[in-house]
Design brief:
This protein is α+β, with helices and mostly antiparallel strands and about 190 residues long. The protein has two domains: about 70 residues, Roll (2,3-Dihydroxybiphenyl 1,2-Dioxygenase, domain 1), CATH 3.10.180; about 70 residues, 2,3-Dihydroxybiphenyl 1,2-Dioxygenase, domain 1, CATH 3.10.180.10. It is built from three helices and nine strands. The longest helix has 12 residues. The protein starts with 13 loop residues before the first strand and ends with a helix.
Length: about 190
C-alpha cells in the first residue's frame, strides 16, 4: 500500500443531503440518533436552509431544505427499501446510503435502542466474501457487521462495524465500466 498520496484526506468534512422537512430531520438526527446540531444557515433570497450535524470524529452530516426542491423518486434518487426488504438499487450519481461506523461492542445495543425509538431496522447482516456475501453465522471471514434503516425522508442509513483490518489481498477485482452496465441492461430488456 502506498503512502505517497497527492492529497491529504482526513475523512469527510461533510456530506450534504436534501430533506423535505428540516424540523423532522432535526428531530430524527438529533433526537433519535443523538447527533448534535452544530451550525444552521438561512440561505439568501429565501432559497431555504442548510443545517449541520456532528457525525463524530470531525465529520459532519448536512442537510439542505430548499423551498422549491422537487420530491425524490424512490428507486432513482434513493433506494425504495432496505436491503433484504425490497429494491435497494438507486440511479447513477445518486447517494445510495450512509454507513455510520459504530463500535462493535455496542452494535447490538444500538440496534435495540433504534427499535425502542420506533425505527424500523433491518436484520443484522454479516458481510463476508462468500458467493452470497452474507453469512448466517459469525466466522473469521466476516469483515463487517451491519444493519440498515431509513430516515423520515427514506434516506437509507446503515450502522456498521469493521471486524478486521484489510490487506492488499482484499483488493482483487477489476473495475467494471459503463459500457458493461449498458450491455447488461440491454440484455435484460430482451
Amino acid at each position: 500500500m502506498t503512502t505517497d498520496r497527492p492529497f491529504e484526506f482526513r475523512g469527510f468534512n461533510h456530506l450534504a443531503l436534501v430533506c423535505s422537512d428540516m424540523q423532522r430531520t432535526v428531530d430524527f438526527y438529533s433526537g433519535v440518533l443523538g447527533m448534535p446540531l452544530t451550525k444552521t444557515v438561512e440561505l439568501p433570497g429565501g432559497l431555504g436552509q442548510h443545517f449541520f450535524f456532528d457525525a463524530g470524529n470531525g465529520n459532519s452530516l448536512a442537510f439542505f431544505w430548499f423551498t422549491e426542491a422537487p420530491d425524490g423518486i424512490p428507486g432513482a434518487s434513493a433506494p425504495v427499501e432496505k436491503p433484504g426488504f425490497g429494491e435497494w438499487i438507486s440511479a447513477v450519481s445518486s447517494m445510495n446510503h450512509i454507513a455510520f461506523d459504530v463500535p462493535a461492542e455496542k452494535f447490538v445495543e444500538y440496534r435495540r435502542k433504534l427499535k425502542e425509538a420506533g425505527v424500523a431496522v433491518g436484520p443484522v447482516v454479516n458481510h463476508d466474501d462468500s458467493e452470497t456475501q452474507v453469512a448466517r453465522q459469525m466466522h473469521p471471514g466476516v469483515y463487517v457487521r451491519s444493519f440498515y434503516f431509513q430516515d423520515p425522508d427514506g434516506i437509507l442509513l446503515e450502522f456498521a462495524c469493521w471486524l478486521r483490518e484489510f490487506t492488499p489481498d482484499d483488493v482483487a477485482h477489476t473495475p467494471r465500466t459503463a459500457s458493461e452496465r449498458r450491455i447488461r441492461a440491454l440484455a435484460n430488456q430482451r
